[in-house]
Amino acid sequence: MSGIFSISRFRMATDGPGISTLIGFSGCPLNCQYCPNPICHTDRSQWPDYSARELIDFVRRDELYMRMTGGGIVFGGGEPLGQEYFVKECALYSQKTLPDIPLRIETSLQASIKNVQELLPYISLWIIDIKDLNPDVYYRYTHGQMDLMWNNLMYLVQHAPYGQDSIWVRVPRIPGYNTNRDIQKSVRRLQPYVKHIEVFSYRKPPEKREGTTE
Ligand code: SF4
Predict the structure, then answer these.
(1) Residue-by-residue pLDDT tens, the chain, 214 positions
(2) CATH number of residue 111's parent domain
(3) Start and end of every Radical SAM core domain (predicted)?
(4) What atom in ligand 1 is closest to the CA of residue 34?
(5) 174 C-alpha to center of ligand 1: Å?
């Protein structure tokens, strides 16, 4: 069962260059306090069950826009690395029907190294939200272990077939969780390994704003 909770078309330069289609996979091992897609945690059996062929055939309707703008297909979520075999099936079918359309992934890298290895040959851009590299901040915000993400990132740095340009790391400002100093420390730790580092800000969801507890 594929468990796709959304397909967002015509995304402009938000998931790598050009116009992209973002496929939202249900399921995520993290529990981020300001998760923009809490719906991904709901039971996957309620979502449409695409085969890889059905999904890529659907996405193909925007092939022209992708080709004209250098866009691509983006596997996101949720955590697409949790459905690595299905993503691989999509990649194999896409190679046949949409040759040279880039395949990208948006991930927290919270998965076994085997899942990362399974997809390594197919993904030309890894967009990684690392949260924060202070393990305490990471745990407080996500309830996950930072080491798993970091070890996977280091593996990617050494083995990604498309090289350093295929790894983009995002470092969020997380209101109430990390400080500017934490962010600077994360960036400094990443700099020897990653060329493309983007600092950006999370928004607190309305129910966590003023007057509520975190
Ligand atoms: S990693 Fe992404 S999808 Fe998963 S809980 Fe965090 S923000 Fe939500």
Answers:
(1) 678 999 999 999 789 999 999 999 999 999 999 999 998 898 878 888 899 999 999 999 999 999 999 999 999 999 999 999 999 999 999 999 999 999 999 999 999 999 999 999 999 999 999 999 999 999 999 999 999 999 999 999 999 999 999 999 999 999 999 999 999 999 999 999 999 999 999 988 777 765 444 3
(2) 3.20.20.70
(3) 14-214
(4) 7
(5) 13
Three-state SS for the chain is CCCEEEEEEEEECCCCCCEEEEEEECCCCCCCCCCCCHHHHCCHHHCCCCCHHHHHHHHHHHHHHHHHHCCCEEEEECCHHHHHHHHHHHHHHHHHHCCCCCEEEEECCCCCHHHHHHHCCCCCEEEEECCCCCHHHHHHHHCCCHHHHHHHHHHHHHHCCCCHHHEEEEEEECCCCCCHHHHHHHHHHHCCCCCEEEEEECCCCHHHCCCCCC
Into how many domains does the chain fold?
1
Task: Output the six-digit token pair for 206.
Answer: 């309305």
The domain of 183 spans 4-208
Residue 31 CA to ligand 1 center (angstroms) comes to 6
Sign (positive or negative) of CA dihedral 100, 166, 30, 154 = positive
Looking up tokens 């930072």 gives 146
Is 134 touching ligand 1 by the criterion CB < 6 Å?
no
